[in-house]
Amino acid sequence: MRIVVAITGASGAAYGIALLEHLAKLEVETHLILTAAGREIVHLETGRSPADLASLATRCYDETDFTAPVASGSFLHDGMVIAPCSMKTLAGIASGYAANLVQRAADVTIKEQRRLILLVRETPLSAIHLENMLKLARLGVVIMPPVPAFYLRPASLEDIVLGTTGRVLDLLGVPCAPRGRWGNDYCK
């Protein structure tokens, strides 16, 4: 499998990091795009450096690198996840305005009819946010705010993050999701 992962400047960097960690354990090929704001949020929320995250990915790209393979429809992949996805990124994708590599890779993913999952982060949501989400959902984009599944009885923040990450992995068809299914055993 080959998965594109993007981390933008919204709060919730732990979701993108957990996704990268799990995919690395499964030896899934990952292509990471970090925005400048994403780098800051990762450091602020987790204390980790961009180099730490790059070490989890097969390849890592700067948001300004429009020569990256993920900018082309000829780059085959099994899905793209933006975790977390800022409202700025959502708006750019919804309007077809590919101002950076994350938005361009998402645009390509949509036009090539591949799986695109957005872990949108904002609350409360304005009508503009909702309209952008609806526009993309009608195109087949999966809009997945990282809402905790309390029926899994999470005992920690890590449990909450892994519950959401497990759902994302299920949507991508990645085997052995860490958590996220009701009444099933999980791989560790």
Features:
188 residues; alpha/beta; Rossmann fold; six-stranded parallel beta sheet; 15% strand; globular
Describe this structure in words.
The protein has one domain (2-172): Rossmann fold, CATH 3.40.50. The two termini are 20 Å apart. Strands 3-2-1-4-5-6 form a six-stranded parallel sheet, sandwiched between helices. It has seven helices and six strands, in the order E-H-E-H-H-E-E-H-H-E-H-E-H. Strand 1 (2-7), helix 1 (13-25) and strand 2 (29-34) form a beta-alpha-beta unit. With 188 residues, it is an alpha/beta fold.
Helices and strands, with pairings:
Elements (H helix, E strand, L loop, with lengths): L1 E6 L5 H13 L3 E6 L1 H11 L3 H7 L2 E4 L17 E6 L1 H9 L5 H11 L4 E5 L6 H11 L4 E2 L13 H16 L16
Parallel strand pairs: 1-2, 1-4, 2-3, 4-5, 5-6
Instruction: Indicate how many domains the architecture comprises.
Output: 1
What composes the largest sheet? 6 strands, parallel
Binned strand content:
15-25%
Query: How confident overall, as mean pLDDT?
Result: 93
What is the total tally of β strands? 6
Give the N-to-C terminal Cα separation.
20 Å
Number of helices: 7
Spans of at least 5 consecutive residues whose pLDDT stays below 50 are none
Radius of gyration, CA atoms, in whole angstroms: 15 Å
Helix content: 40-55%
